[in-house]
Amino acid sequence: MPKISVIIPLFNKARHIRSTLESALRQTFADFEIVIVNDGSTDDSESEALRLQDPRIRYFKTENQGVSAARNFGMARASGDIIAFLDADDIWEPGHLSDIIKLHLDFPQAGLLCTNYVQSFRDRNRIPKFIGLPDFPWRGIVPDFFDSSYVDRIAWTSGVAIPKTVLDETGGFNENITLGAGEDLDLWIRIAVKYPVAFDSGISAVHNLSADNRMSLTQTKNRAFALLDQFDNEEQSNGSLKRFLDLYRAEFALKMKLADDRRADFYLSGIDSKNLSAKTKFLLALPAFALRRLYFVKKFLESKNVDISAYH
């Protein structure tokens, strides 16, 4: 049996899946399998995925049920001791799985094995910022996962691997969360409140933020967001977790206000305002029409390579 199972959910990524698979097959650590789950694609994703012939690739096709169901389907058929995730438009550097294995061997108590990554836009790259960690090169157990993830997430799907024994205890992705509305966030939190998180600051993956088929605000009302209320007990005794959750409550609420979605009130009611920046509180107080105008200004500035955060 392979040491690592790589789970790739595939939905309408015909332009990207071959490059993604090629990056996985170039790994210097070779004891792995790739489990592709075609989640009802309607483009040429299947033919592109099947163009690459390698005995380590296992291909499945299902009716469209969403990324959580696709990942869970793949994990149920995985043979490896460690489950790694790779989205169908992201890229791994050749040493990614080798870095994952080293983390697992050096920190066997860790429930999340995370490597650093770069965010790739159409005409620029951005390196994430993590709070309270030593400068590169560094690898070890993250002292405060939620505090370090406040600006950028340490755990990002294509940079994460999880021992299968941990998943057996915590369960997989919540299939009630749909259309990329926090299903990965929900699982990382469930693991991180119970297990240490290991991190390697060396960049071994590329998060493609210019790919096709990304979510837009027009889809907000059709998305079932992570409720985040299942962590009530933990956040009462963990200030970093509470602050982290309130950040995402604010993010979800802003998206919903932009879409005139009344569910925003649910998330706003759970926030301790002390955990939000003055900028975030100002934006949450704006009427929807004013918020939308600022949103389009933000998008224009981003097109000019000017990054503006609503949260920090």
Structural descriptors:
312 residues, alpha/beta, Spore Coat Polysaccharide Biosynthesis Protein SpsA, Chain A, 2 domains, 10-stranded mixed β-sheet, 10 strands
Number of domains: 2
Instruction: Report the CATH C-level class of the largest domain.
Output: Alpha Beta
Distance between the termini: 46 Å
Shape annotation: globular
Classified in CATH, the superfamily of the largest domain is Spore Coat Polysaccharide Biosynthesis Protein SpsA, Chain A
Can you lay out the helices and strands and say which pair or pack?
Blueprint (H helix, E strand, L loop, with lengths): L3 E7 L6 H9 L6 E8 L5 H6 L6 E6 L4 H10 L5 E4 L5 E2 L3 H11 L5 E9 L4 E2 L12 E3 L3 H4 L11 E4 H7 L12 H10 L4 E12 L23 H6 L1 H20 L5 H6 L8 H8 L2 H16 L9
Parallel strand pairs: 1-2, 1-4, 2-3, 6-10
Antiparallel strand pairs: 4-9, 5-10, 6-7, 6-9, 8-10
Description:
The chain has helices at 17-25, 45-50, 67-76, 96-106, 145-148, 164-170, 183-192, 232-237, 239-258, 264-269, 278-285, 288-303; strands at residues 4-10, 32-39, 57-62, 82-85, 91-92, 112-120, 125-126, 139-141, 160-163, 197-208. Strand 6 and strand 7 (125-126) form a beta hairpin. The chain is an alpha/beta fold and 312 residues long. The N and C termini lie far apart (46 Å). Strands 1, 2, 3, 4, 5, 6, 7, 8, 9 and 10 form a 10-stranded mixed sheet that branches. 41% of the residues are buried. The protein folds into 2 domains: 4-208, Alpha-Beta Complex (Spore Coat Polysaccharide Biosynthesis Protein SpsA, Chain A), CATH 3.90.550.10; 218-303, no CATH class.
